[in-house]
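[Meeting: bench + compute handoff]

Bench side (C.D.) handed over the final construct sequence. Compute side (W.E.) agreed to return the predicted structure before the next meeting so the bench team could plan truncations. Sequence as handed over:
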Amino acid sequence: MVASLSSATADPGKESSALDEFGPYVLADRRKWANLADEMPLQLTEEALRRARSRADFIDMATVEQVYLPLAELISLYVMHTGHLYRSTHEYLGLSERRTPFVIGVAGSVAVGKSTTSRLLVELLAQLPGRPRVSLITTDGFLLPNAELERRGLMHRKGFPESYDRQGLLRFVMDVKSGAGEVSAPVYSHLVYDIVPDERLVIRRPDILIVEGLNVLQPAPRRPDGTTALAVSDFFDFTVYVDADEDDLRQWYLERFMRLRETAFTDPRSYFTRYAQMDAVAAYAYAEQVWDTINRPNLIENILPTRGRATAILRKDARHDIEWVRIRKT
């Protein structure tokens, strides 16, 4: 890497004050960050890019080259040096177990573009030397079934930390990290807005696992006696937080809801069919209510406070484009 980044303690600008309190970062605007990608050749087709991006993300190949390729390069360094540490430790201890998977957490608000970021990382990291096997899991599969949420009075809190099977997610990541040959997870359907009965996603010995979700960077809750248990974030080797201004997030959510109202919601099997049948004004008002009473409180109370725990923060502007990147000092 030939370019250098500036320290967050120098003069990062007005945006920095909200971030610097969480820990020391180095900064890169889009131009400086793009200059770092000088070693890893891009081998991503337009078709692969189309599969990776969501409908709301207007990401092009230039953004992949200038933002995600340097990020993949940086992660490759972490993978390499983590491997060196693993081998050195096992040589010292006289152990011969297979190297454990490298686990990446991707977090951020509803509608910020976590899925696009995660899928692009799958495509790019699979091109690293040795062609590692890269798997992706979303925490949606660990949401409690709707019937259980109803029983607990949590349907209006869907997406909040308490709406997940946190122990199930923790066991899953622990089993993958421990090198289990085959680990399975429940499957969530956005169409029916619920867990799919008797369907499982099977993960088989990945070299790299990406775990994407709203709350994946949360620390473990404190027990009544003051102690803490393990959290899924304890098993991450690298973490990414996709960030944006709250007003932009709200607008993106509303636009996505109205777009889905004309597409996926028209499917008779969809949980949200009734909103496709509403007039546009009523549907928009409902989407505003969902943001203001569910998504925004979850963002403020649970998601945003974890931003400073990330290894990398990708900040989007109002156009859904990455304007700067921050990397935690190590």
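W.E. noted at the follow-up: The first helix runs from residue 17 to 20. C.D. will use this when planning the next construct.
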